[in-house]
Amino acid sequence: MRQFKTESKKLLDLMINSIYTNKEIFLRELISNASDAVDKLNFKSLQDPSVKIDQGDLAIRVSFDKDARTITISDNGIGMTAEELERNLGTIAHSGSEEFKTENAEQQGSDVDIIGQFGVGFYSAFMVASHVKVVSRAYGEDVAHVWESDGLEGYTIEDGERAEHGTDVILTLRENEKLDADGEAETYDRFLTEWGLKSLIQQYSNYVRYPIQMMVSKSRQKPKPEDAGDDYKPEYEDYQELETVNSMTPIWKKRSSDVEQKDYDEFYKSTFHDFDDPARTISFHAEGTLEYDALLFVPGRAPFDLYSKDYEKGLSLYSSNVLIMEKCDDLLPDYYNFVRGVVDSADVSLNISRETLQQNRQLKAIAKRVEKKITADLEDMRDNDREAYEKFFENFGRGLKYGIYSSYGMKADELADLLLFWSAKEQKMITLAEYAKGMPEDQKAIYYAAGDSRERLAKMPVVKGVLDRGYDVLLLTQDVDEFTFQAMREYVAADMPKIYEDDAAREAAEKAVADGAEPEVEDRHLELKNVATGDLDLATEDEKKEAEDATKENEDLFSAMKEALGDKVEKVAVSARLTDAPACITTEGPLSLEMEKVLQKGPEGAPDGMPKSQRVLELNAKHPVFDKLVAAQKAGDADKIKQYSGLLYDQALLVEGILPEDPVAFAAAVCNLM
User: Fold this and answer.
1) Which architecture, in CATH terms, is 541-673?
2) Confidence (pLDDT) at 665
3) Contact between residue 457 and residue 427 where contact means Cβ atoms under 8 Å apart
4) Neighbour-count burial for 188-220, b at 16+ CB within 10 Å, e otherwise
5) CATH assignment, 2-215
6) Distance, CA of 451 to CA of 395 (rounded, Å)
7) Residue 96, annotated ligand binder?
8) 409 among annotated binding-site residues
9) Which residues of the chain form CATH 3.30.565.10?
10) Range(s) within the chain of domains with CATH label 1.20.120.790
11) CB-CB contact of 160 with 147 (8 Å)
């Protein structure tokens, strides 16, 4: 027996038991090797006119014998001499395919497509086999050679027989394992079924460029006997037929102009198990230092588990048409986790098991290009098929918003223009760019209100106050919305009409435009402002003066109301934003009322442990209720001041969609007042 040419048996044990995590990929590796052998012979025939082969006969065949517990992978490729068996199979991690690929790099492409890169794929057979036999006859030789090993100490090479050139790899499968302490056991019998082998071929090797053939069982109706009566019932018989079980030509390798959308739809639904057609199909081919094909799909609806912790994102990664990873999550950012599809590249550096990828520039370059393609396609849908885009955003918009929030605003440049929000003024979904284009010239911020429904938000006094001044308000109704805006802080509106500092500059610009010049534009930085927080600075100088005067005149009243409300509010003040409502609750600092509500709904939402917003009770000094408060203060009626303060505070909370701390006391106070 010949010993493996490595330093110790431990290396072989590492190859067999540690490199691969999924036993079923042994078939993928052996079929890939068979494909390489056929490719080498095909290439040889193209280079040497004396080599005569029929291209239509080149194939790979897979068979099994349940009783003998064997699986055989056969090819009619170039085969191996005894020396090549010694070099390729006797030396662990030596790759004849890699050698061939390097020597013929210029021809790699349409004529030859070598899959193998490392010499360890063959040894994956020992994960499932107790004994491996390789019968190979090199093209042009009369004698075959047989390599055999149990994967433990060494191997033998002897002369043998094979009718024609090519290679047979015969695996004798291990016996099924006994149950372990967890009640689990490896069942190797699953590989000894027609369905089991066929499904593995179609999962991992469906797009290998040569036919992979199997004898498959079928059923057919027997001919009706001539003497059969009227009560004859059809009889059926089982038979076997050699069938090609792989598709060979992947749809992503075809030009998009040669593929109908219905074919893409069918591929998407069958591959990704969806009942609906995709909303968008993105197909592209990249060339240059890195060559790859990509076929991407935006689903027509969100999967039920999209926002669950069990959802797995990622694209199927192929290398030379062979599935390497079913879901390569490195190819998609989290905010595009809904995208499904395929990337196929022969240039990606794989580790020796081909199951996991090395972190390298190639993978990052592909991911970056994929992201740009998705973004560009979504922008195209937004601009040219608004109805479809709004449906898409309804399904997947939350993820885009979360992408900005989770990156602390760093992804705002890429994602902000994909967002849609409800416009209180336009009564439809609009982008931030569309909001900016519709602003009056004097507007310096984007105004929004956050809550649980558009209807309630539209009726809020603070929203009506901003609308009455001619400014639009975006109504945000998802829990992530305000957190997203907090992370963004501002929106840069591109190509806005230039605002001039003085009349002379404006007049000069207008004259230039009249003479044929293009109007000047500029990028404008617009702060994102919640209409229920801070000072919006929308009041006129007269309104500000009136509010200041009312505050000074009624300092004692505000002090009494603050004392009555205690730590419920930071202060009581005159509002310059209200028009017809008697009072409203606003906040100071970064935490708004809506954000406080969202945080309290979370897993850590214990009322005592959550941060509280800094609430301010703002009063409308022009409202009749304010006159009642002033009269009570002048009359020295402390009880009435306390009662009115509590009622105004609680009703302002109700407008915000927040229940009073003591609803029973609130109801009683209303009844007493009546």
Assistant:
1) Up-down Bundle (1.20)
2) 81
3) no
4) bebbbebebbbebbeebbbbbbbbbbbebeeee
5) 3.30.565.10
6) 20
7) yes
8) no
9) 2-215
10) 541-673
11) no
Tokens 């308000």 correspond to: 473
Q: Is 6 annotated as a binding residue?
A: no
Q: Is 572 helix (H, G, I), strand (E, B) or coil?
A: strand
Cβ contacts of residue 627 below 8 Å, gap of 6+? none
80 is in an annotated binding site: yes
Choose from 152-161, 195-204, 570-579, 580-589 the range with maximum mean pLDDT: 195-204
Q: What is the DSSP string of 294-306?
A: EEEEE-SS--TTT
225 φ/ψ sector (left φ>0, alpha ψ -120 to 50, else beta): beta
Name the residue among 594, 439, 591, 587 with its Cα closest to residue 526. 439
- Which residues, in sequence order, are CB contacts of 98 under 8 Å at separation 6+? 114, 116, 117, 118, 119
Quote the strand ranges of 312-406, DSSP E.
Answer: 315-319, 322-328, 340-344
Beta-carbon contacts of residue 463 (< 8 Å; ≥ 6 apart): 424, 449, 457, 473, 475, 531
Q: CB of 116 within 8 A of CB of 93? A: no
Q: Which tens digit of pLDDT belongs to each residue from 110-163?
A: 444 444 443 467 888 888 999 999 999 999 999 999 999 988 778 899 999 999
Q: How far apart are CA 390 and CA 13, in angstroms?
A: 56
Give start-end residues of each CATH 3.30.230.80 domain in the chain: 251-385
Q: How confident is the model at residue 670 (pLDDT cuts 50, 70, 90)?
A: confident
Residue 121 marked in a binding site:
yes
What's the CATH number of domain 420-530, 1.10.101.10, 3.40.190.150, 3.20.20.70, 3.40.50.11260? 3.40.50.11260
Higher-pLDDT residue of 17 and 227 is: 227
167 is in an annotated binding site: yes
Tokens of 94: 């030596």
| 160 and 136 Cβ atoms separated by less than 8 Å | no
Query: What is the torsional sign of CA 267, 272, 277, 279?
Result: negative
Q: Has 672 been labeled as part of a binding site? A: no
Phi, psi of 110 (to 5 degrees): -70, -30
| Secondary structure of residue 54 in the 3-state scheme | coil
Fold for 251-385, please state it: Ribosomal Protein S5; domain 2 (3.30.230)
Nearest to 197 by CA among 438, 389, 6, 31: 31
Whether residue 658 contacts residue 597, with contact meaning beta carbons closer than 8 Å, is answered with yes
- This prediction has a pTM of 0.79
117 is in an annotated binding site: yes
Cα–Cα distance for residue pair 227/42, rounded to 1 Å: 54
Q: Is 600 annotated as a binding-site member? A: no
Q: What percent of the chain has pLDDT over 70?
A: 89
> For the purposes of burial, counting CB atoms within 10 Å of the CB of 9, is it exposed (0-12), middle (13-18) or buried (19 or more)?
middle
Secondary structure E strands in 299-383: 315-319, 322-328, 340-344
The answer to whether the annotation marks 74 as part of a ligand binding site is no
| Residue 316 counted as an annotated binding residue | no
